[in-house]
Amino acid sequence: MKLSHSLAAVALALSATVAFAHGYQAGPLKIGHPWSRATPAGAKVGGGYLTIENTGSAPDRLVSISVPFAGRAEIHEMAMKEGVMTMRPLENGVEVPAGAKVEFKPGGYHIMFMELKQQLNQGDSMKGTLTFEKAGSVDVEFKVDAIAAKGAEGEHKGH
Ligand SMILES: [Cu+2]
């Protein structure tokens, strides 16, 4: 009895850790909390967000993302340009300088899932693969958060 109890406690502690951390590693890169917003029925685009921390001594670059639930995924940047929010695809990806942490978030860098094949529902975990120039590919899961999570009104107006 004692043994099974402690095993259960360990299992609980482990699953809690995984749920809270929800991070991935690719070489010296730490990928934190990939998440996405729930999409309305019939929506063709969705956004993906995460953090990338480079603990190494050389820069790396996120060059592409592929996900089975969308036709393609692009790396976008949103910025204010002459008072207007604009969004543009970054053909060469996003550099992560040595020792730096790059944040993909609503209103800034983001991953755009195009030609969605299914609705993204809150609570889902959506598989995807990130590819870095040097660190190679790493499989992650995007946790789907509420449709209005972390604001940024009109983020996807350009689409
Ligand atoms: Cu976009």
How would you characterize this protein structure?
The protein is mainly beta. The protein has a single domain (22-145), classed as Immunoglobulin-like (Sandwich). The chain is 13% helix and 50% strand. It is built from one helix and eleven strands, in the order H-E-E-E-E-E-E-E-E-E-E-E. The protein has one helix at 2-21; strands at 23-26, 29-37, 46-54, 60-66, 70-81, 84-89, 94-96, 101-104, 109-116, 125-132, 136-145. Strands 1, 2, 3, 4, 5, 6, 7, 8, 9, 10 and 11 form an eleven-stranded mixed β-sheet that branches. Strand 1 and strand 2 (29-37) form a beta hairpin. The radius of gyration is 17 Å and the shape is globular. 25% of the residues are buried. Copper (II) ion binds at residues 76, 87, 110, 112.
What's this, in brief?
By secondary structure, the protein is mostly beta strands. The protein is built from 1 helix and 11 strands.
SSE map:
Layout: H1 2-21, E1 23-26, E2 29-37, E3 46-54, E4 60-66, E5 70-81, E6 84-89, E7 94-96, E8 101-104, E9 109-116, E10 125-132, E11 136-145
Parallel strand pairs: 2-11
Antiparallel strand pairs: 1-2, 2-3, 3-8, 3-9, 4-7, 4-10, 5-6, 5-9, 10-11
The structure holds copper (II) ion.
